[in-house]
Amino acid sequence: MKPRIVIPNAAPEAYQALMNLEKYISSTSLTPVHKELIKIRASQINGCAFCINMHTADARKHGISEQRIYLISAWREADFYTEEEKAILALTEQVTLIGNHVSDEVYENAAKLFDEKYLAEILLAIITINSWNRLAITTGMRAS
């Protein structure tokens, strides 16, 4: 692949703003498992090999089993996820595929399971990984 723009060099202030959002996500009350489920599922949908590679490795470090990692893309047919994790995965899918909008059913289910602050942190984590996916894919970052 032909080299592409390096955003941290071309627009360091903008890149730092995205890094600050990631730093915020790291400081939230979201569990490591919830964070990694969000990051893996959004990255799968977006086809970001760089991020899938990174976040499946991170998931293993946080104790997520291989079986649960392998089945994330088929979570509806697997009995390995909690009700909360299923709500997070459903919300991640609909926010990532935002052109289809976020249904009231999916949003209300998540709002029923999580308090407002935690739900806000979930949404911001989904938005942040989608930003990283788009940056990595557009600039040609490769899994290695």
Detail the topology: elements first, then pairings:
Blueprint: H1 7-10, H2 12-27, H3 32-46, H4 49-61, H5 66-70, H6 83-96, H7 104-113, H8 116-139
Helix pairs in contact: 2-8, 3-4, 3-6, 3-8, 6-7, 6-8
List keywords for this structure.
single chain; 144 residues; mainly alpha; 8 helices; 0% strand; globular; CMD-like; AhpD_core; Alkylhydroperoxidase AhpD family core domain-containing protein; AhpD-like
What does the model show?
It is built from 8 helices and no strands. The protein is mainly α and 144 residues long. The longest helix is centred in the C-terminal third of the chain and has 24 residues, at 116-139. It is globular. The two termini are 14 Å apart.
Question: Outline of this structure?
Answer:
The chain is mainly α. The protein has helices at residues 7-10, 12-27, 32-46, 49-61, 66-70, 83-96, 104-113, 116-139.
Count of individual helical segments: 8
Beta strand %: under 5%
Number of strands: 0
Distance between the termini: 14 Å
Class based on secondary structure composition and strand pairing: mainly alpha
Low-confidence stretches: none
Give the overall form: globular
Largest sheet: none
Helix content: over 70%
- What is the radius of gyration computed over CA atoms, rounded to a whole number of angstroms? 15 Å
Order of helices and strands: HHHHHHHH
Average pLDDT figure: 96
